[in-house]
Each structure stands twice: as structure tokens, then as C-alpha cells.
Amino acid sequence: MTDFSQAIPVDKICYNEQGLVPAIVQDYLDGTVLMMAWMSPESLQKTLETGETWFWSRSRQEFWHKGATSGHLQFVKSVRYDCDSDALLITVEQQGDVACHTGERSCFHQVDSTKAHPPADTLSGVYSVISDRRDHPKDDSYTCKLMAGGDNKILKKIGEEASEVVMACKDDDKSAIASEVADLFYHTLVAMSYHNVDVKEVYKKLQERRG
Questions:
Q1: Which of 15, 59, 96 is closest to 23 using CA atoms?
Q2: CATH architecture of the domain formed by 122-208
């Protein structure tokens, strides 16, 4: 377990009149905002000491160890505070990929009372759409046509797009490089979804190779 006990000065945080500070919790891999809750100096200290998130429940007036009952624990990866020292940003590894009490991944899953994918990085967003097309096919969807063609069609496109990336780089055409890499990313994500490999598994591999 990473020692966060000296990560931030608990006594230097600016708490509100109730002695609390808002803590935004974010997925450490794809940046999805999972939830916002309140921390007291004591719950922040518990979070830093245990490496798991602890909050203060304003309704129950007690400490709240996130996931202790549901099993959806949050393992802390980093803790930051803002320029005014009155808000926290905590990145976590979310167990079970569920942070909301409703069973949704993120508490921010509604847009005008309609469920929607929570905001995340672009690749994860595209992967979610691709996987939705896989699970709910549409006749006019290019993604669905690729999926219907199986590995032969998908992998052929990946080979074509990889060659086009090479040619764009050889020509030193920056606009073409960006465009062709985007096409390669998209078709690779289709292959991953076809084989049920979540994009976050790739992020984990990249995290392991950092440094």
C-alpha cells in the first residue's frame, strides 16, 4: 500500500463552517469523475493513512468508509488540493467499477434526467459507443458491419490503417498523421470490443510501463 500520510498538509486545508471540504473522486485510469463527497480533517487523515477513501456523512453524522458494505472500495492513487486549498481531487482504483449507490459506475450519469455515459477521456468514450453498437446492433452502423465481418474484416482494416499511418509519417504530413492514427485507434478499439478487452486494460499496461 502506498503511504499517503505526508501527501498533503491536513491542517492547511481550508474547511467550511461545518469543518468539511469537498472531495472529487476520479478514476485514475480514464479520468471519469466518479463522485463528490465531503471530508472532515479526520476522514481525510484516515484516507491518507489507510489508502482507502473515507468521508463524512452529513445525513448520518458519522464516518463513511466507501465500499465497506458494498465491497466497492476505492484504493487511492493520488491526492491533490486546489490553488485555494478548499477542494480535494482524489484519483482511485474503483473496485467493482461501481461508485454510485444506484449501481451506476459514476454518480454523474444523468443528463436532464436521462441516463448517459459519464464523461471520461475520448478513447474510453469511443470504446463505450463501440461496445454499445456491439450489444445493440443497428443496420446502418459502420461499426456493426465491421463486427458482423468478424476478425477477418476488422483485422484487414487495422492492417490498412497501420500502413496509412506509416505513409503519412513518411510524408511528414502532420494533419494526415493525426487523421490516420485516429482511424487506426478506432479500428483497434473495434477489435478490442469484439474480443471483450476493455480499454482500461490497455491503460493499466501503459501505467505499468511509465518511467
A1: 15
A2: Orthogonal Bundle (1.10)
